[in-house]
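User: Here's a protein and a ligand (phosphoenolpyruvate). What would the complex look like?
Assistant: Let me lay out the input and then the predicted complex.
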Amino acid sequence: MSANERTLHSVKLPEDWSPGSWRGRTALQMPAYPDAGELARVQEELRALPPLVTSWEIHSLRQQLAEAQEGRRFLLQGGDCAENFSDCSSAVISNRLKVLLQMSLVLVHGLRLPVVRVGRFAGQYAKPRSAEVETRDGVSLPSYRGDMVNAPEFDAAARRPDPRRMVKAHARSAMTMNFVRSLIDGGFADLHHPEYWDLGWVTHSPLAEDYQRMVANIGEAVRFMETLSGNQVHNLNRVDFFTSHEALLLPYEEAFTRQVPRQWGWFNLSTHFPWIGMRTASRDGAHAEYFRGIRNPVAVKIGPGVEPDELLRLVDLLNPDDEPGRLGLICRMGAAAVADRLPRLLEAVRREGRRVLWICDPMHGNTEATSNGYKTRRFDNIRSEIEQSFDLHAAAGTRLGGVHLELTGEDVTECTGGARDLCEVDLERAYRSTVDPRLNYEQSLEIAMLIVRKHAQLGLALPGAR
Ligand code: PEP
Ligand code: CO
């Protein structure tokens, strides 16, 4: 690129960065692959495979996230904690899409704002773990790190990190993307037909009445507009759906980091909106090094241990030019810590006038173990962290621009509480997650409804619209 072209962009390419420059830093949470030669061969194979997303879509998402930063949109980011290869099925994918579409309908209707829809799917196959090894009955094996790395069964062959799983992860991601794109292009998301998104068991839900009333209102509004204009309201079948995953496994991410014709810079073309997990978010680490050079919008998980100075330095590293829509901060403090830990971060970022998109992840700070050994989350804590976050932003003069949730369209019982008031013994009935507990359909819809209530209670609206 000529010097002239470069000055057309207010954003500079980092001079000392390359898709592989992360290799000079400490890379936490990487599997110990026993065969370096095979890893290199797999990376070569991945480099030749087609990407999953395009740079145009990435630019369009960045624009939408910039609008969310200004309060002109709201971000809904959600999906499984970890996708499994075996869950790459028609029912699991379409049910998850249905929940996200229904939630976004509740949000659009209640917030009177367009929603940016981002799935945690088509690549959410690698997981950070708190321990390198797992020990059972005196036997220690490498921890399960997601289907992209190894298998969950507790035997030596299953737990051996296998680079070929990255090729399979790419294929599964491509199948997922392909199905999601076909559903949406084929009219699945058409607002004239919200009944397409109904999930069988929903009719028994205590929330069904509220939801159906809202759908009827929307249907009437659409018909009213169509009568008034004498035309079909177009574009109601056109919703954008973007993907995201934790870009944890850097050899995989590096292989999909590409340049494209007539665009400057490098793009991670395995997903639209990658994020850095809490355990790998150090400014000096390999993940931050990798992320600073890609042109995608990126996000980073912020836990309760992060101090304001540290956060500002991370913001500087990841968004040195203060580019709109570039950086999301996904805060996951826990309901008990958020009031203590969040305000000073909000204040520091506001004081420095930095542009970020504040996102609340009310899941990961609220994980606990039950007496019968299940990993769970209480709905009341999830609700409380969201509500407190809205209040804390209102008090700080900042804006909560979105939520990040772990959910599924399956009828699971993994989080306690909610409209059906699930309790610890219910967890045994349908606990399917191999990692973190997810909100089921009903609990997810309830979260969307409570966001709407909270928004209304605080009188939040478009800037200038009050
Ligand atoms: C996750 O999002 O599944 C996760 C592991 O989150 P965190 O990095 O916030 O712990
Ligand atoms: Co999780």
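Summary: Confidence is low (pLDDT under 50) at residues 1-8, 462-466.
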